[in-house]
Amino acid sequence: MHILVTGGAGYIGSHTTLQLLERGDTVTVFDNLNNSSTISLERVSQLIDKPINFIQGDLIDTNELHKLFSQFQFDSVVHFAGLKAVGESVAQPLRYYQNNVSGTLNLLQEMQKANIKTLIFSSSATVYGDPQALPVTEEAPVKPTNPYGQSKAMIEKILSDLCDSDSEWRIACLRYFNPVGAHPSGYIGEDPSGIPNNLMPFVSQVATGLRECLSVFGNDYDTPDGTGVRDYIHVMDLAQGHLAALDYLANQPSGKLLTINLGTGRGYSVLEMIEAFEKTIGKPISYRIVGRRSGDVASCYADPSLAEKLLDWKAARGIEDMCIDTWRWQSNNPRGYREQQ
Ligand code: NAD
Ligand code: UFG
């Protein structure tokens, strides 16, 4: 199968590209390198010992997209490309809607013209907003609380309307919970630019000495230790979820819209994550409790049973693997891919 991977140079895209290549698929990565570099793909290429077919381009540029679809005959598309920083989306909503929603519309139009109707879309647990019941099932109301989440919810709606209009489309919206970890080689991993927004990259940068102290955003939530609880999922498990979703769609007798949670079903608090990381590295992580971060919810973790039932997929890696692999990546690449530039 020839699979177009948009955003394939990024964190989740590079791990999924590697797994697709490992199982024998042909992959073309399309990425504008807005939040990534080609070094991730060079590393994937070294791990698989094969060249990577990479096209630098932007989903917003319809000419580039048209050229891409004229040049190759894809069987399906795995669509990671998007902007993902919640705070930035509040400050720059137009940029987020333009990039995420218009970019996806451009992609869908080209797919339709080329008669390629199988798509995996990177959605997010952020579409649930502040969930009323836990664990969160796919039936929970979609109530995003920021422009980033809105852009994901809008795209899901567009995809649902598209499936209603034409029964040949096979689409999976995968709602990821909190991706963490790295490839066990320590060769590819998450490389945020600037100060990390997310917990685990920040914790691992404190561990290497790049940052002084972690701010824990609030210890007065209604959770067992007062800190926020999330469903952290190893990026290798997450990548495997995409392969499982592709197989599921390929085996459907007719068109299909699948909306599915990819999480572990187990929530960990911020303090539990810090403790697990300290155990892995054998030294304390310096942290202090500060006020709540605006927009954060107390707890969010998945009911992942639908993914197990339909995709025969289940997260296999636990908190220990998440910490060990994060640490291997971070300690081998303290400045991420920039070390190489
Ligand atoms: P990432 O930023 O590492 O990867 C996204 C990639 O898309 C980057 O390489 C970027 O350069 C590229 N890109 C962005 N806009 C583009 C455009 N217009 N044209 C071409 N390329 C473009 O992010 P990630 O963590 O790998 O996330 C992948 C997807 O998963 C995103 O859609 C994100 O919203 C979604 N997601 C991520 C998380 C998370 O916490 N990492 C959680 C839920 C959902
Ligand atoms: N946290 C801290 N200090 C930090 C960073 C985070 O205490 O420096 C806390 C947060 O308050 C939260 C937990 O750690 O309780 C996790 O925070 P993250 O920023 O790592 O993750 P979020 O759950 O806030 O959001 C992430 C992605 C979103 C995505 C969502 C669900 O950033 O894009 O998971 O998939 F939508």
From TrEMBL:
<dbReference type="GO" id="GO:0006012">
    <property type="term" value="P:galactose metabolic process"/>
</dbReference>
<keyword id="KW-0413">Isomerase</keyword>
<dbReference type="GO" id="GO:0005829">
    <property type="term" value="C:cytosol"/>
</dbReference>
<feature type="domain" description="NAD(P)-binding">
    <location>
        <begin position="4"/>
        <end position="324"/>
    </location>
</feature>
<keyword id="KW-0119">Carbohydrate metabolism</keyword>
<dbReference type="InterPro" id="IPR016040">
    <property type="entry name" value="NAD(P)-bd_dom"/>
</dbReference>
<protein>
    <recommendedName>
        <fullName>UDP-glucose 4-epimerase</fullName>
        <ecNumber>5.1.3.2</ecNumber>
    </recommendedName>
</protein>
<keyword id="KW-0520">NAD</keyword>
<comment type="similarity">
    <text>Belongs to the NAD(P)-dependent epimerase/dehydratase family.</text>
</comment>
<dbReference type="InterPro" id="IPR005886">
    <property type="entry name" value="UDP_G4E"/>
</dbReference>
<comment type="subunit">
    <text>Homodimer.</text>
</comment>
<comment type="pathway">
    <text>Carbohydrate metabolism; galactose metabolism.</text>
</comment>
<dbReference type="GO" id="GO:0003978">
    <property type="term" value="F:UDP-glucose 4-epimerase activity"/>
</dbReference>
<dbReference type="InterPro" id="IPR036291">
    <property type="entry name" value="NAD(P)-bd_dom_sf"/>
</dbReference>
<dbReference type="Pfam" id="PF16363">
    <property type="entry name" value="GDP_Man_Dehyd"/>
</dbReference>
